[in-house]
Design a protein that fits this description.
transmembrane; repeat; GNK2_sf; five-stranded antiparallel β-sheet; alpha+beta; Killer Toxin P4, Chain A; Gnk2-homologous domain-containing protein; elongated
Length: 179
Amino acid sequence: MHHPSLFLFLLLLLAASPLVATAATFNCVGGVYKANSTYEANLRRLAAVLPAETASSQDLQATRGVGYWPNRPRASSRCYWGVSPSSCAACVAGAFREAQRECPYGKKAVVFARNCTLSLADFPRALGFRTISWLDLLGAGLVFQAIGFAWLFFLLLQEWRDKRRASMMRCSSLPSGDQ
């Protein structure tokens, strides 16, 4: 290469510049509502109430449903650690706007923003956010551990049986009377 400094500069420029980065990640799960419906009015009311509730809660998370079934939207929001209450409220309100923009007329959506997470669902189902305790992880871990130990025991038993058979075959070879 004739210009190594140019190559290094381009490499540094590519490494330093962020690639296409989005402010939020969306997941539109499904279900739709009609425009100007009771569900949409309840969703707007929920979008007005939930940011303030999330910001005013001590752990910066809230779950709320508005209206009556079948026109009852439900949402869970959570702000990440270290976010101020005012930034939390702004993030949740922005997540609502982004969810409506990215998932038009969608009843179920999940938005992972920079400072918060928002989950929208219709009444019977809501994606809740709660901290996972060690006991939650312990159950699944114990199941996999038990399966692993059972498999190892099975392999050990097979190996022991094969070695025992081989040693019995060597030790119990019958002498022939033709010698």
